[in-house]
Amino acid sequence: MTILPSSDRKYRRNPRTPLLSPQKYDDHEVGFNGASYSGAVFNLATTIVGAGIMALPAAVKQLGLVPGLIMIALGAILTESSIEMILRFSRASKSTTYSGVVGDAFGVAGRTILQVCIVVNNIGMLVVYMIIIGDVLSGTWSDGVKHLGLVEEWFGQHWWTTRFSLLLVTTLFVFAPLISFKRVDSLRYTSALSVGLAIVFVAITAGVAIVKMMDGSMKMPRMMPELVNQASFWKLFTTIPILVTAYICHHNIHPIENELRDPSQMKSIVRASLTLCSSLYIATSFFGFLLFGDHTLDDVLANFDGDLGIPYSSLLDDVVRVSYGIHLMLVFPIVFFSLRLNLDGLLFPYAIPISLDKRRFFSVTAVLMGLIFVGANFVPSIWDAFQFTGATAAISVGFIFPAAVALRDTHGIATKNDRLVSWVMIFLAVSSSTAAISSDIYSIFICEKGVGS
To answer: How far is CA 20 from CA 3, 329, 358, 423, in A?
Structure first.
């Protein structure tokens, strides 16, 4: 038997059940011997490389190529620092969850706020995934132009090719089976396939850009941001939440570590995953912006619906959209996994682990899936969703909470470098979040004023 550490135990107290570590208990029941290094790398990389990669070329368009790529690299460095802090303070507090670490430092209030942020962030991300899948299958509108989806292109416009119908079919026959697994390591093969499909997308984008560059049909993109007025300056800050959201994986660090055969490998797993993902991000942003320039859409996947100016353009368009649509379908369950755990911990802090209660497991799963499905049919744009979750919950989960735990330092293990990095994280997080939210409000005000006049 493995007893829950004190920081987690007080939130899982139940007089009728032993205080077992939920993951260890499940593993013993099914004969699970622990997750492998490669499986953990794929699961963590899949958590990171979700929909964020699709919005990065648009973020680079706003920032300019040089500042944009620098910001992507900086995001990876800060993310590794924040995760390393979480892992060290987890061991010091003997916590097996991210919320347990925060609860050890800030009590019930801190733990609850973190869980709310994770729930908001993950719901926002999963809504984004479904929006992009809907764009791929049924098409989307941008600046008054209709971008056809794959199913519409192949079969024409019918009631069963509408966004609602296609997302409903995807939910029932793809998401429902995948989100029914009770152990994150069960998704290792789908995660490996997911990463492979993301690489296919990057390879095709790079290949098309290189071919067009060689035949001289491509213009060089802007190296620096284009500042024409005050509004364009403040709009630069709206890219920060996009960059932050692209690296958020903190909510799955502990579920993955808890299943490892050798938990001491987690630091290496984090570094390998971030190296892989940041490489994909830089390549996608560079070649995507190079290929589409100022015509890069908020969801770059929507750009792959017309003539790319090379042979077999239509076939490549379809391969790109099919591969990335399937990729997102396989990312969905691994993000949903931590969403369900944190919502359950928020609503039922004293109950037995959700994996041991079938009725609660399927009830929470069904309610969450219903909320995400409704959100995906009413949120107009992935940029809107990224702005909301990225400027609030994502920044809190990725930077503010890890930095706050290090500064609180209840176990006296924080170094001078930890404190310095923590203050930098908090300053960047708060300032960029404030600027992004202010910019959004300013844009809304200007639009309404323009419409009214």
So the answer is: 5, 33, 18, 37
Instruction: Characterize the bridge pairing of strands 140-142 and 145-147.
Output: antiparallel
Over the stretch 107-118, which tens digit does the pLDDT of each residue have? 999 999 999 999
Are residues 137 and 166 in contact, defined by beta-carbon separation less than 8 angstroms? yes
User: What's CA 280's distance to the chain center, in Å?
Assistant: 14
Q: Within a 10 A sphere around the Cβ of 328, how many other Cβ atoms?
A: 26
Look at residues 312, 287, 88 and name the one whose alpha carbon lies nearest to residue 207: 287
- Three-class SS state of 195: helix
In terms of Cα–Cα distance, which of 54, 113, 91, 38 is closest to 404?
Answer: 113
Q: What are the C-alpha distances in Å from 283 to residues 47, 212, 317, 319? A: 18, 16, 18, 18
Q: What span, in angstroms and rounded, lies between the C-alpha atoms of 119 and 123?
A: 6
Residues counted in the chain: 453
Q: Which two tokens stand for residue 234?
A: 């403040």
CB 5 within 8 A of CB 19: no
Residues of the chain under the 50 pLDDT cut = 1-4, 6-7, 9-29, 451-453
β-bridge partners, 306: none
**CA 425 to CA 420: how far, in whole Å?**
9
Helices marked H in 224-312 = 230-235, 239-245, 253-258, 266-292
φ and ψ of 142, to 5 deg: -145, 120
Q: Which CATH architecture has domain 38-451?
A: Up-down Bundle (1.20)
Going by the DSSP 8-state scheme, the letter that residue 5 receives in this structure is P
Name the amino acid, one letter, at 285: S
Q: What is the pTM of this model?
A: 0.81
Helix, strand, coil percentages (3-state) for the chain, rounded to 5, are: 75, 0, 20
